Amino acid sequence: MSLPETTDEILPTSTDEVCAALAENASGEQRAVFPVGGRTALHYGYAPQTPGVALSTHNLHRVIDYPARDMTITVEAGICIDNLADTLKAEGQRLPIDVAQSSRATLGGVLATDTNGARRFGFGTMRDYVIGITAVDAAGKPFHAGGRVVKNVAGYDLCKLMIGSLGTLAVVTEVTLKLKPLPESSTLLWCRFDGWQDLDAALEGLLRSDTRPVAVEALNSEAAHDVVSESRLELPTNGPIACFGFEGTQRETDWQMERLTNELKQANVAELAQVSHEQSESLWFALADFAVTSEEPLTFQAALRPSRTIEFVKLATDAGVSIVAHAGDGVVIGHLPDDVTTLEAAQSVLDPLQQMAARGDGDLIIFDCAEDWKQSIPVFGERMTHWGLMDKIKQQLDPNNLLNPGRFGLPAEAI
Ligand SMILES: Cc1cc2nc3c(=O)[nH]c(=O)nc-3n(C[C@H](O)[C@H](O)[C@H](O)COP(=O)(O)OP(=O)(O)OC[C@H]3O[C@@H](n4cnc5c(N)ncnc54)[C@H](O)[C@@H]3O)c2cc1C
């Protein structure tokens, strides 16, 4: 979703200025408002049908409170992910969420898109780290949810409601996060198999392993080739690849790498490469950046039972799709091949995948494709029963449908 050319931009420097700008708009012109951060994922969702004004969080990047001893931090939502990581690193801490293009992406954008990656298996998602927010609704009224400490508050968790809401409910201006210590060691085990069956058996074997990987990734050759070339490492790419991540003390990761290496030798692994702590950073980044859509005709994310994931990956591979799967969680990201140039061709690749995801009790959403294809391919999957409730929550928080109208594809009259 790119913003209409004519979109003006406002650049507030505080929550109060966000309130003033939204209140003036709501009581005045009632223009559509598009919250934007680093603009790395504006293509996600339906394009706005009406011109409007972009509300940029570019000037909302301060650290407000960082009691490192409490392992929490409160920052403004426009802070860039890399700058946040540098601030936390100075105290030996981090937010263990993988973000593509982290030099541009903002915390508000990561929260609004519920971005996550390989480490979600071991560390969870944004819902596990956001303990407080300050946000402003379309009428310019600020509200707070959660707090500066992990609270046992009764009632609805508005923090979680904002996560994944794509800027349609409110503009998030401040976020309080709980943090994790930076690990002494972060290593990866890159394994090539001769066939998907062997790889699937190895993943099944993991259930009985003494090791505790924080990431369990599966890649096909196409994706492995791209990820390895971006990481500038020398790793095998010709065949199904499994990649296991370990984090902790040097002793813990060394033991787990050795242990899983021995376990996998019993599991028909064809080739194994241990990626050391020094080398691992570029591979973690390359895995995170795989979601970045560039020239591909269509990028999707499917979610299904972990036990059905490799079956899905195999079907997609046979259709020429480039795949990275967070196999431990049953989440699969796929780029359709460049020779898919028509809507019909895209649908013929997607239909069997959507059916398999549904059979795996999951769904398939579209991260990015040509805008006109979105009229025929349901970006957020088939309409679900809870969407009615989403409509009502949207109507409650934004009765005039001013914030990112139509983003979820819910035409105004549906509200
Ligand atoms: C589905 C998906 C696709 C992705 N595709 C790419 C990709 O192609 N390239 C890439 O580099 N990275 C991509 N990423 C990763 C990207 O780095 C992150 O999604 C990142 O979170 C976007 O941050 P941003 O600041 O750039 O957000 P933006 O792209 O500026 O905004 C993303 C969404 O968040 C909303 N938003 C932003 N800030 C706020 C706020 N403060 N309050 C409320 N709403 C807000 C916007 O309205 C918009 O709906 C993708 C992630 C996801 C989940």
Give structural attributes.
globular, 415 residues, 3 domains, disordered C terminus, binds flavin-adenine dinucleotide, Uridine Diphospho-n-acetylenolpyruvylglucosamine Reductase, domain 3, 8-stranded antiparallel sheet, 5-stranded antiparallel sheet, alpha+beta, Alpha-Beta Plaits
Overview of this structure, please?
With 415 residues, this protein is of the alpha+beta class. It folds into 3 domains: 1-182 and 383-415, 2-Layer Sandwich (Uridine Diphospho-n-acetylenolpyruvylglucosamine Reductase, domain 3); 185-289, Alpha-Beta Plaits; 298-375, 2-Layer Sandwich (Alpha-Beta Plaits), CATH 3.30.70.2740. 30% of the residues lie in helices and 23% in strands. The protein is built from 12 helices and 18 strands. The protein has helices at residues 15-27, 81-89, 107-113, 120-123, 158-162, 196-205, 221-231, 250-265, 277-289, 309-318, 343-359, 387-397; strands spanning 8-10, 32-36, 52-56, 63-65, 72-76, 93-94, 130-136, 142-146, 171-178, 180-181, 185-193, 215-219, 241-248, 269-275, 298-303, 322-326, 331-335, 363-369. It has an 8-stranded antiparallel β-sheet. Strands 4-5-9-7-8 form a 5-stranded antiparallel β-sheet. A hairpin with a 4-residue loop joins strand 16 and strand 17. Helix 7 (221-231) packs across helix 9 (277-289). The radius of gyration is 22 Å and the shape is globular. It starts with 7 loop residues before the first strand and ends in an 18-residue tail after the last helix.
